[in-house]
Write a structure and sequence with these properties.
mainly alpha, 2 domains, 7 helices, 8% strand, flat
């Protein structure tokens, strides 16, 4: 939950140091995947809450999992596929809009982000610094 990549690296190192004696395999795996785990810092800060969680995937399939478990063995393959499709459409009505969806165009165009803020390039193409979130 660190606000910058630098602070996240420091917190990551503290976590590994604190838990490596008790959980050596897990901490080695985390160290190996460090860059992938912190990749969300290269995206708009408004999107971090969505990138950090698996809840949208879990909640979308919870209804499907519940209903299909109850009807198992009572329907054909085509019927269960239709049921899953209709349950997905029904669940879609309760989904909330993603935070920071206005920045998706920037991400698609390849705008670089550092710690959730767009990086501006000067005329020579060199990254000049960061623009404020309010100016973006």
């Amino acid at each position: 939950m660190a606000p910058t990549r630098e602070q996240a690296h420091r917190a990551f190192d503290r976590f590994v140091a604190m838990h490596k004696a008790k959980y050596p395999k897990a901490t080695e795996r985390l160290k190996r995947d460090r860059e992938a785990l912190l990749a969300f810092y290269d995206f708009p800060a408004e999107r971090w809450v969505h990138i950090r969680t698996t809840n949208p995937v879990e909640s979308a399939f919870a209804t499907v999992r519940l209903r299909t478990a109850k009807t198992r063995g009572c329907v054909s393959r085509n019927t269960i596929l239709a049921l899953v499709f209709r349950l997905g459409l029904s669940a879609e009505k309760r989904w909330i809009k993603l935070r920071g969806f206005q920045r998706l165009g920037q991400v698609i165009r390849g705008v670089k982000f550092s710690d959730g803020t767009p990086v501006v390039a000067n005329e020579g193409g060199v990254e000049d610094g960061l623009i404020s979130r309010s100016a973006a």
